Amino acid sequence: MNKQHSAASVSVIVPAMNEAENLPHVFATLPEWIDEVILVDGNSTDDTVAVARKLRPDLRVVVQTRRGKGNALIEGFQAATGDIIVMIDADGSTDGREIRGFVDALLAGADFAKGSRYAPGGGSDDLSPWRSLGNKALTGLTNLLYGTRYTDLCYGYNAFWAHHLDALNLDCDGFEIETLMNVRAAKAGLLISEVPSHERSRIHGTSNLNAVRDGWRVLRTILRERTGREDVPAHTQVALAK
Ligand SMILES: Nc1nc2c(ncn2[C@@H]2O[C@H](COP(=O)(O)OP(=O)(O)OP(=O)(O)O)[C@@H](O)[C@H]2O)c(=O)[nH]1
Ligand SMILES: [Mg+2]
């Protein structure tokens, strides 16, 4: 895809906390047709912002006002000016070359393009058996409670039309953000398309995620959102993007 094929502009949101060593790898994978890249800095104590600005002079930097990946993404989404918003990680685990598949799914009619490591063609070099099991259990519970057919709940590679931000009405701070997005997208009746994605291992540094603490936050989100739930509209579905 290039700009001749679509009038839709694309913003990429990159939450980053101490990812200076990884950003050269991440930014090198971003397609040249991206319109806007926003780095949301989590008050990094390394050179994250300086490195990012040097790599991309056109970069927009947002300094988050609270703590956590969820807060970072929400503030990045609010700052975005593109028609399409894509979220990727700054640790080298998500490959910018896959953005095309997400954008194509949206241009083909999806409201929300949801990355999946378990869809045919997807995969992970990073998921431990323990975390994979936890993710599968949480995905199954979500499908049961919300009538969805998701294959991967807790994955940080997603894209959506910016005009759906109001419907998503995001309000959380932590790693439960992806779960909240997936649940709210279903509750809002958005047309959801899963896009196969291959997750690579973090290149440098250590994960900020704590499987028990954050798994618990995800579970609480799934259960809390169920209260007062309206039925998921019949047209909500998950179709694998070609
Ligand atoms: N701005 C900001 N970014 C964050 C924060 N926490 C995590 N991130 C970023 O969010 C992305 C994902 O965080 P990771 O720590 O890699 O967690 P994860 O990918 O869910 O877990 P792993 O699979 O173990 O790597 C990375 O780009 C982090 O730098 C935060 O509090 N603020
Ligand atoms: Mg990671």
Keywords:
binds magnesium ion; eight-stranded mixed β-sheet; Undecaprenyl-phosphate mannosyltransferase; single chain; 8 helices; Spore Coat Polysaccharide Biosynthesis Protein SpsA, Chain A; about 240 residues; Glyco_trans_2-like; Nucleotide-diphossugar_trans; 10 strands; glycosyltransferase; transferase
Secondary-structure blueprint:
Blueprint lengths: L9 E7 L6 H6 L7 E6 L6 H8 L4 E4 L5 H11 L4 E4 L11 H9 L4 E5 L6 E2 L4 H18 L11 E4 L3 H4 L8 H11 L4 E5 L1 E2 L11 H16 L11 E3 L2
Parallel strand pairs: 1-2, 1-4, 2-3, 5-8, 6-9, 8-10
Antiparallel strand pairs: 4-7, 5-7
The structure holds guanosine-5'-triphosphate and magnesium ion.
Family: Belongs to the glycosyltransferase 2 family.
Pfam families: Glycos_transf_2 (PF00535)
Keywords: Glycosyltransferase, Transferase
Description:
The chain is of the alpha/beta class and 242 residues long. The chain has one domain: Spore Coat Polysaccharide Biosynthesis Protein SpsA, Chain A (Alpha-Beta Complex), CATH 3.90.550. It contains eight helices and ten strands. The protein has helices at 23-28, 48-55, 69-79, 99-107, 129-146, 165-168, 177-187, 211-226, and strands at residues 10-16, 36-41, 60-63, 84-87, 112-116, 123-124, 158-161, 192-196, 198-199, 238-240. An eight-stranded mixed β-sheet has the order 3-2-1-4-7-5-8-10, with helices on both faces. α1 links the parallel β1 and β2. The mean pLDDT is 93. Magnesium ion (MG) is lined by residues 89, 91, 93, 202, 207. It is an enzyme of class 2 (transferase).
